[in-house]
């Protein structure tokens, strides 16, 4: 579809790097405003992402009907074909035809500026979702896969990737209880529906504001909140507010328990537990952790407990430091409370290191940062980024840039659409969307991956390019790490393309990019003052890196506490006590600051929905990324051999290989939980060299 023809030409024809005339260097693509109108070649007026039907919102219906028809054909085909490796291939094609519409629509429904497009996309998501549910309970379809997996001789003849993908498809089936008797299957379906409803209701409740009578708060802080008649409305924790009383009030009011939300959470957790047991697991956590790096709840708890023990002394020191700062500013009331750390640690950072973002921004123009990324990928992986002019109707907003990702010998690898700039109604989150997965097609061509990166950067103006704060620059590197995971994957099946891998592995490539973004040797290559051309001084980079370590133990300790809470909630049921009592005990054990009576933070823990039993993933991904950085890139961040190994052992497989095997292949050893803990703790050490350099 999108670029099949061009791909053929490139793959056959290009052995050396050659730049298409429609491509421009990546820096220019982000520095120069797009010129004139989009190309509108006759007969090629494309729709969104080059999908012809999507030139108008009504096209979604056409695309979705086409997908549903193709699905029916494929279902018939797989059910009437004897089992073999092709069974997996047809399953993957089936999944591809649905995902291609659903993933694209998933993005469009939240990001398109036009309501009509968003609504049409929403409708497409719904109808494909219904189809997926139907397929997951289609016994005939299930049996065709079952016949393959039950035949030991056949299974042994499958290559590891095919076998893994077959098992992953089976795993999806089993949660709907398809392998159970009729009565149990009905219960599984009912539970799935209930969990879906409870999840969205709980999620909504996590953002819901709380109100309190005005007269209960001192008048001097009223103006910090929204007022509604006689009431004060509190819709967030106000963690950065300088006034202690504002943060305290926000904390106590926003976290005041809501009976309905409490009930929703309890029901959600117990329904998940019932479903897991019904389909054969001891707890929900056991099911969620199948196929991950950690593999079992026991390993996750071991990781969290060891990490917590190793952190505790450093955390206490951080708390002391934060308490000292509070005492200095507010001697009458210097007891350290849970609403204090974010604000005071920010103050300490600013006081110790002169890291005002405006000092850094001029060195991080978006064009320079993109050049830096292209250069890094080029030296590490032989890959370059080029700006490409999209066709008319291909993008949803004029400021979206399209990047072609080109390998020096393999040619075009895929496309990244960069939706980087703020606009009205655009969700305020940085994220990566898979629009189309890579897969080997039956005709031998490779279906190129297509992704969107969404950021919220300020627009450039006539005399000022888009300038990034250090935080935005790091985010850009992080998100590009996800994009390159998608681009460099060469999985046979789109079901495991790029970032479609276990949750605790998914953040490894992106967090690894943060290590590059914080290394002077890398930053030095691209950070230039947009007016003077001067490069960013070395001590400014060091200062920035060291500032991030201030109170970092306390921050990590908080994450450990959240992750442990998530494990316990999704562990053995019935729970030993109320979710609030568990919160209190876990906070004491894993954090260290006192629980505040009449609060229930867990009711605002929105990640319980999407990351149920996997909240630890971010910490574990960070541990792996840190080890990869230390073992393979720290000595030379441009080491081509290490870069090639990184692609071969990790990125190329997407989710098609067991994650621990990828980690082992990369590190050339099998890391233990202690290794994970050690590397995370070592990252908190101050760099002595920097310290000396700065004090002279
Ligand atoms: Zn990420």
Please render the helix and strand layout as text.
Blueprint: H1 4-13, E1 23-25, H2 26-31, H3 59-80, H4 85-111, H5 115-136, H6 139-150, H7 152-157, H8 160-174, H9 182-207, E2 210-213, E3 226-228, E4 231-234, H10 244-254, H11 259-278, H12 284-288, H13 297-329, H14 341-352, H15 357-360, H16 366-381, E5 383-388, E6 401-407, E7 411-421, E8 431-436, E9 439-440, E10 446-447, E11 450-457, H17 470-488, H18 503-506, H19 508-517, H20 520-526, H21 538-547, H22 552-569, H23 579-590, H24 607-610, H25 617-633, H26 640-649, H27 659-667, H28 673-682, H29 688-695
Parallel strand pairs: 7-11
Antiparallel strand pairs: 1-5, 2-4, 3-4, 5-6, 6-7, 8-11, 9-10
Helix pairs in contact: 3-4, 3-5, 3-6, 4-5, 4-8, 6-8, 9-11, 13-14, 13-22, 13-28, 16-20, 17-19, 19-25, 21-29, 22-23, 25-28
The protein binds zinc ion (ZN).
Zinc ion binds at residues 478, 482, 507, 510.
What do you see in this structure?
This protein has 696 residues and is of the alpha+beta class. It contains 29 helices and eleven strands. It has helices at residues 4-13, 26-31, 59-80, 85-111, 115-136, 139-150, 152-157, 160-174, 182-207, 244-254, 259-278, 284-288, 297-329, 341-352, 357-360, 366-381, 470-488, 503-506, 508-517, 520-526, 538-547, 552-569, 579-590, 607-610, 617-633, 640-649, 659-667, 673-682, 688-695; strands at residues 23-25, 210-213, 226-228, 231-234, 383-388, 401-407, 411-421, 431-436, 439-440, 446-447, 450-457. The strands form three sheets. It has a six-stranded mixed β-sheet with strand order 1-5-6-7-11-8, with helices on both faces. A three-stranded antiparallel β-sheet has the order 2-4-3. The longest helix is centred in the middle third of the chain and has 33 residues, at 297-329. 43% of the residues are buried. The structure holds zinc ion. Zinc ion binds next to α17. The site of zinc ion has 4 residues, from α17. InterPro entries: M3A_MIP (IPR033851), MetalloPept_cat_dom_sf (IPR024079), Neurolysin/TOP_dom2 (IPR024077), Pept_M3A_M3B (IPR045090), Pept_M3A_M3B_dom (IPR001567). It comes from Rangifer tarandus platyrhynchus. It is found in: Mitochondrion. Belongs to the peptidase M3 family. Residues 239-680 form the Peptidase M3A/M3B catalytic domain.
